[in-house]
Amino acid sequence: MTATKAPSTRRRGRPPKVPREDPDTRAVLIRSGLEVLTEHGFIASGIDGILKRVGVPKGSFYYYFDSKEAFGRAVMDHYAAYFAAKLDRHLGDTSRPPLARLEAFVEDAAAGMARHDYRRGCLVGNLGQEADGLPESYRGWLLETLADWERRLARCLHEACEAGELSEATDCESLATAFWIGWEGAVMRARLERSDRPLRVFIATYLRGLPR
């Protein structure tokens, strides 16, 4: 008669949704941080709330990030890369006339805000409103990121000049700066109204004011 082997005993317990050794844990934390920071900004966002969203223990957080400031920078760098890719996708779309590319970017942004019920704004705009309470290194990052966006849009506006959509004398760099100054205000107003109306008013007014 063969003896029946007793089943091995294991401690039962609910494992974390994202274990510490999971190579995707850092990415999950950054995505969660991006969601929270685009909704609430940096100062009002607590680490505990970010961790609770994805079921990551605090010990795992500090395994990947030395501090909330370091975590914020990682989120900001992720956002910068994501947004630059979005701009390149729209502003570099040679299948459309240059100014139509800018309109396509606005349409995409409006759809994204509506998809999240206008709870999320632009991370750069959110942080800019908190500038006095942020780590000093963040200010430099914000200025560098805005300058990068301006350069990408200025290239598109130069293409509009070459295509005859704008006057050859157009100051594309100044107009690119003006766009992002106005855009951040439009995004903030869209969140306030919970409507894409401010985005559409802004782009229509901006395009009408361009030198033809």
| Overall geometric form | elongated
CATH architecture label name of the domain at 69-208: Orthogonal Bundle
Q: Roughly what is the average pLDDT, rounded to an integer?
A: 90
Tell me about the biggest sheet?
A: none
CATH homologous superfamily placement of the domain at 69-208: Tetracycline Repressor, domain 2
Question: Radius of gyration over alpha carbons?
Answer: 23 Å
Strand content: under 5%
Question: The CATH topology of the domain at 69-208 is what?
Answer: Tetracycline Repressor, domain 2
The computed structural class is mainly alpha
Order of helices and strands: HHHHHHHHH
User: What fraction, in percent, of the residue positions are helical?
Assistant: 55-70%
| The CATH C-level class name of the domain at 69-208 | Mainly Alpha
In DSSP terms (H or I, runs of 4 or more residues), the helix count works out at 9
CA distance, first residue to last residue? 96 Å
How many E strands?
A: 0
Instruction: List unreliable stretches of 5+ residues.
Output: 1-21
Folded structure, characterized:
Helices cover 67% and strands 0% of the residues. It has 212 residues and is mainly alpha-helical. The protein has a domain at 69-208: Orthogonal Bundle (Tetracycline Repressor, domain 2), CATH 1.10.357. Helix 4 packs across helix 5.
